[in-house]
Structures are given as C-alpha cells and as structure tokens.
Amino acid sequence: MTVEIGVEEIEDIALGATVLGTGGGGDPHVGKLVAKQAIEEFGPVELLPPDELDADDFVIPTAQMGAPTVSVEKLPSGREAVTSMERIERELGKTADATMPIECGGINSTFPFAVAARRGLPVVDADGMGRAFPELQHETFNIYGVSGTPAAVSDEQGSTCLIETEDNDQLEWLARGVTVRMGGVAYVSDYPMTGTQVKETAIPGTMSLAKNLGRALRLAEDDAMSAIREVTRESIYGEARSLFEGKIVDVQRRTERGFVFGHVDIDGLDGDEGSTMRIEFQNENLGAAVDGSYVATVPDLITVLDRETGGPIPTESLRYGARVRVLGIRTPEIMRTPAALDVWGPASFGLEATYEPLADHP
Fold first, then answer.
1. Could you give the residue range(s) of every CATH 2.40.390.10 domain in the chain?
2. In terms of CB atoms within 10 Å, which of 37, 149, 310, 326 comes out highest?
3. pLDDT of 150-163, one tens digit each?
4. Long-range contacts made by residues 332-336, C-beta under 8 angstroms, separation at least 24?
5. Where do the S-Me-THD-like C-terminal domain residues begin and end (predicted)?
C-alpha cells in the first residue's frame, strides 16, 4: 500500500531517521528543509513498498556523501542529486522509475524525497544500510551482488563526475576522493538497479519505520524511551534497550579523508554512576564500551538521546556537559549474515571486538 509523503511526514521521517542514523548520515535539519521546499513547490511524494515494484522497474538511489560537519556549512540547493541521477540516465539510456535512500539516517533519509518531488517519482520504502554507515560499499546492495556503477557525483557548482569501476570498494575510494576535491561534501547516485534487485537486496520498510519513530517521539511528551521501544518492538529490528545514562565529559573530533573521526566520553549517572562509556565514531557511532568493555558494536545501532527531551543527538552536535541516554537497537537479520559482517562488522572499522547481537530489552 502506497503512502503519500507531505511536509508533516517529512518532519517525522527526519526525526525518526536521526534515531536510526546512529549519529550520522548528515545534518537531518538540512535534509528536512531541502525536502520540504521541494514538496511545497512540486507536491507530495509517493512512498512505494518494494514489493509493489515491477521486476524491470529502474531504480536509482540518491544521497549526500562526505563529512557531516562540512555539510552544515555547504548547504545544498536540492538540485545536486538530480544532476547525478540524470547523468546515470544518460549513460544507460534509461529513465528512472523511482529513487530510494542508500541509508535511513540523517540527511539521506529525506534527500531522496527532494529528488523525487523534483522529478515526479516515487521513493521506495527501503534502503541499503538499515542505519547510516560512512562508506559506499557498506550496502546490502553491495553485499548481495549489485554493482554500484555507473555512479555519478555532483557538487553545488554543477560539476559532475561519472565513475565506473570493477568493484564497489573502488567506487568508494574514487567517489571519496572526488568528494574531498568538491569541498568535503557531494551528492551521489549509485547502485542503479532493477525492481527485482531491490526486492532481493534492500532492507524493506525503513522509511515507514523512520516515520513511525518520528511520530511516536513527537507525541511522546516525557517518555521517549518507551515510545522508541514500542515502535521498534513491532519492526524487523530488535526492541530498543537503554545502554547507559550520564554526562558528556569529553568530545574529540577530527575531519580526515572526507570523514569525521572521534570519540565521546560519558560519565555515568544514577544506576551507571562510577562507570564511564566511550563511544567511537566515524561519521556514525561504531562501538560503545563501558569501562573498557564493549556493550554494543556495528552493525547494531548506537544512538545518543538528550536525557531530558529524548531527542536524538548527531555526532556533530555532541557537546561537553550534555546529559544523555545511550540506546541500542539490534539490526535486522539481513544485516547480520556472515557476508554482511565481513563488510561492516567491528573488525572492518578497526574495533577490537567480536560482534555480539544486542538482545531485546528485558
């Protein structure tokens, strides 16, 4: 069943996807504004379940890539990813029947809606990460056999680079270099695929999940954690659980090779008093350790919430003195296969940890 996405739904998707985005995916406020502007100008967008795609439908995902801290300073017009999509269409001699997110976090949960509104296309209710990850090969599309190229990368000046590679790791390496040359943030269309490939490789229902999470948080008043638990309990993910509560006492960040690397240290409060949690991130939160022992790692979701308001906090907004709650959400089964863990398990990010799936909330 298709759903119409207007301005109010974009607000909810942006909020919910910030929870699913595990601190990354680009500034959700920027993506929300770009999508709302496009919808106000061109009309609402159809959210299309992947099982309603025809086998030979042509789907081109669209996204922003680069360092989240840079995207706040280099604001897009909303046309950039359309330029990338149209370059792929010209290359393949085919017109897109739909677009979709490559990840369901931050700006990349809402930016495809701006592309869709401008082009009069539906957005497929699915993505290739089930969260946000920092690199283009971190996709179920890649893991399960879809080529990422031809891909196109564009900037706010109208420059476009077409990329064709033998493998998807090389796509990430080249596209990241182009993005750095374009000022640290750019707009990409990649993994062009058929409707059949979407059904076989994408994580279904993630935009609906983001919308439902956002709406639940908006209506939750003082009990954000219960709202998140209720929505995730009914999803293909695991039920959210609280991992730690405390006060941020240190944040370290550095922008390098087109990413934001760093960590945040949190001193425990209440039941966690006397302990310290460290969260390591590369654009997104990768691992959370309490007193030196990991309690959650990729690919499971690690999200920092404001302890008072329940609002999710992106990595670029973490600040000394903030009182926070850290929650964990287990990823869907398609993201926990041996093939998937080879691509985005803890070792792929240099974490000295063995992946242990989070249990549901007791």
1. 237-349
2. 326
3. 999 999 889 999 99
4. 332/130, 332/203, 332/236, 332/237, 333/236, 334/130, 334/140, 334/203, 335/129, 335/130, 335/140, 335/203, 335/299, 336/299
5. 167-358
Tracing tokens 């930016």 back to the chain, one arrives at 111
Identify whether the C-beta of residue 275 lies closer than 8 Å to the C-beta of residue 290. Answer: yes
Residues 224, 218: Cα–Cα separation, whole Å: 9
Residue 25 is predicted with a pLDDT of 74
Pair 248, 265: CB distance under 8 Å: yes
CA end-to-end span of the chain, whole Å? 33
Q: What is the mean pLDDT of the chain?
A: 93
Quick check: 150 and 192 in contact, CB under 8 A?
A: yes
- pLDDT band of residue 71 (cuts 50, 70, 90) is low
Is residue 283 pLDDT above 90, yes or no?
no
Tokens coding 59: 């789907």
Contact yes or no for 284/134 (Cβ under 8 A)? yes
Residue that is written with structure tokens 């996204």 in the block: 63
Residue type, 189: S
Query: Which is more confident, 126 or 28?
Result: 126
Specify the CATH number of the domain 3-204: 3.40.1610.10
3-state secondary structure of 204: strand
Query: In this structure, what token pair is assigned to residue 192?
Result: 């062009």
* Structural Rg of the chain based on CA atoms: 19
- What's the confidence (pLDDT) of residue 362? 54
Q: Which residue pairs from 82-86 have beta carbons closer than 8 angstroms and sit at least 24 positions apart in sequence?
A: 82/115, 82/118, 82/119, 83/152, 83/154, 83/158, 83/160, 83/187, 84/151, 84/152, 84/153, 84/154, 84/160, 84/187, 84/188, 84/189, 85/60, 85/115, 85/119, 85/152, 85/189
Rounded distance, CA 342 to CA 73, Å? Answer: 34
Ranges 3-12, 116-125, 283-292, 310-319: which has the least confidence: 310-319
Residue 257 has pLDDT above 80, yes or no: no
Question: Domain 237-349: which topology?
Answer: CV3147-like (2.40.390)
